[in-house]
Design goal:
The chain is of the alpha/beta class. It folds into 2 domains: about 110 residues, Rossmann fold, CATH 3.40.50.10090; about 160 residues, 3-Layer(aba) Sandwich (Rossmann fold), CATH 3.40.50.10090. The protein has 11 helices and 11 strands. β1, α1 and β2 form a beta-alpha-beta unit. The longest helix is centred in the first third of the chain and has 13 residues.
Length: about 280
């Protein structure tokens, strides 16, 4: 089966290799470019405020990666040490799914200080995370939400860790509302930026072919589908197939006109099982 991987280039190669090892013909057509924010002052300030937060929620593995790139050198000695004051006197780390959980472990966060949905959860998102952490929320204390920012989004949205969390725009607004409902406060900080990739003519040709030749597109982001629509604005997707790792992503694919949409969990193992069911 021909499978199109749309993850950022840095993450796509491992998926392509695994799919090829499983006997599929895999093609990487990244629909998202990810990089650090141009100005990291807000992230540095968030690290300075670290002990003040009751929890720090990471929306993705990229959020972990770029946030921890700004970790003060003096704190890096705490990597993996569950008894270090960075953890015992600091916030818990919240992860939305297994990929983010793994990234936190790789960043040196002890397993005992990470909260995330169960490995067999039906979905991995803010709602599933909330079911695990709601009982531990303390009123009148802050939770920091580390997120990304779409370059084309409204740049007027505040990215300071010291500012109140906006309830519109990019971010985990639903979770912020739940926190406020329990008397806690939510604050946002932007650790990375997302932008549409600049496809070559060859990549556009490959994408056009994959829209009609029975290829299966793998989507792990609604934004990636928006970028696809922008890259090929006149393309019909009525004959195209895809797997989506969340209901909201599946709905976005449906709105673009994908003719065949299958829902799967976001892990590589689950995607492989879904692909086998389509063979």
């Amino acid at each position: 089966m021909r499978v199109v991987i749309t993850r950022p280039a840095a993450d796509a190669s491992a998926w392509v290799d695994a799919l090829q090892a499983a006997g599929h013909q895999a093609l990487a057509l990244p629909l998202m470019e990810v990089g650090p924010v141009a100005h990291t002052q807000a992230v540095v300030q968030a690290w300075a405020q670290w002990p003040e937060f009751q929890a720090v929620m990471f929306v993705s593995a990229q959020a972990v990666r770029y946030f921890f790139e700004c970790q003060p050198l003096a704190l890096r000695a705490a990597a993996g040490d569950a008894t270090h004051p960075l953890w015992t006197a600091g916030p818990r780390c919240w992860a939305t799914g297994p990929g983010t959980h793994k990234a936190l472990l790789q960043a040196g966060v002890p397993e005992t200080w990470i909260d995330s949905p169960a490995a067999d959860a039906q979905q991995f998102d803010s709602e599933a995370l909330w079911a695990r952490v709601a009982a531990q929320v303390k009123p009148e204390q802050s939770v920091l939400i580390v997120r990304g920012h779409d370059v084309c989004a409204d740049t007027a949205v505040s990215t300071s860790a010291a500012s109140a969390a906006p309830l519109t725009g990019t971010g985990r607004d639903w979770l912020a509302q739940q926190l406020q409902g329990l008397g806690a406060s939510a604050q946002f900080v932007v650790a990375y930026e997302r932008r549409a990739p600049a496809w070559s003519l060859a990549q556009k040709t490959q994408a056009t072919q994959a829209a009609t030749d029975g290829s299966v597109w793998c989507f792990s982001s609604s934004q990636a589908i928006h970028h696809l629509a922008h890259a090929l604005p006149t393309q019909s997707w009525a004959k195209a197939r895809c797997v989506a790792t969340h209901d909201r992503i599946a709905q976005t694919a449906q709105s673009l006109g994908f003719g065949e949409i299958h829902r799967t969990k976001p892990s590589l193992a689950d995607v492989l099982v879904s692909l086998e069911s389509l063979a």
